[in-house]
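pinging the channel bc i need a second pair of eyes. not urgent but kinda urgent?? the chain im working w is below, pasted from the shared doc
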Amino acid sequence: MYRDNPFHNFEHASHVTASVKKLLTRIVNVDDGNGLRVSTDEIDLDDMAGHSYGITSDPLTQFSVFLSAIIHDMDHPGVPNVQLVKENTRSAQIFKKSVAEQNSVELAWGMLMGKEYAALRACIYNTEEDLRRFRQLVVNTVMATDICDKELQALRKTRWETAFADTLLQDETGDDCKATIVIEHLIQASDVSHTMQHWHIYKSWNQKFFIECYGAYKAGRADSDPSESWYRGEIGFFDYYVIPLAKKLDSCGVFGVSSHEYLSYATSNREEWVRKGEKLVQQYMAKYEERNTR
């Protein structure tokens, strides 16, 4: 159910799922007393049971996040939601907002509800209440990957600040709410995890995304040539999304050493891109032409 896009394909979904597994494992390790920045003598052990806000003790939540990572770009058309709305595609007529994300959930849910997956469903949930919670977890997690909707992003930012940044309100925010917020940011970080990994990984996925966007432009499915803004756009993406997101992973205190690793790589990749990005864009364009003249 994944299309053969240069970027939004099953390989990307697998990469995102691997990042989700890594971050969820680090939550478990923190709760077990591993992967912490300081010795256990310096930790308030009375609070350790609530450190992960119930995520590590809830298999349904963990499975829901894994499944969401695998399906989050199912049937992705290789263009952003704004283009789908502009083209008035069938999915845009149905969903109106977060078009690609809602379409992915709808397709995946329809498959899961098929008779061939009855045994799997019996392993996931046994009650109507669990079924409703499972679906809500999947919907919320996949919707969190729509980072272009400014209204949704503003809402998530407000929730984060209430739960983790505003010390006066932190204690009033329940664990369920905090767990939801942590999961949203976990899947968002995983969706762009290539920006917070080794430079060669970042460069490889960045090229794939450029080729997808440039191909859409060449096909008349984008208003502007991405090659003209890609260099500056990546710097802005690091400054206003990736690095702040990595800092949030660190500030929520859930992911142990992984948060430092992600922030370090994001900062390093940003610096490397500033030095090499303009030349790389030219190489990306040459790669696109090579692929399309064979």
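so DSSP finds 13 helices and no strands in the chain. and The radius of gyration is 20 Å. — does that match what u expected or am i reading it wrong
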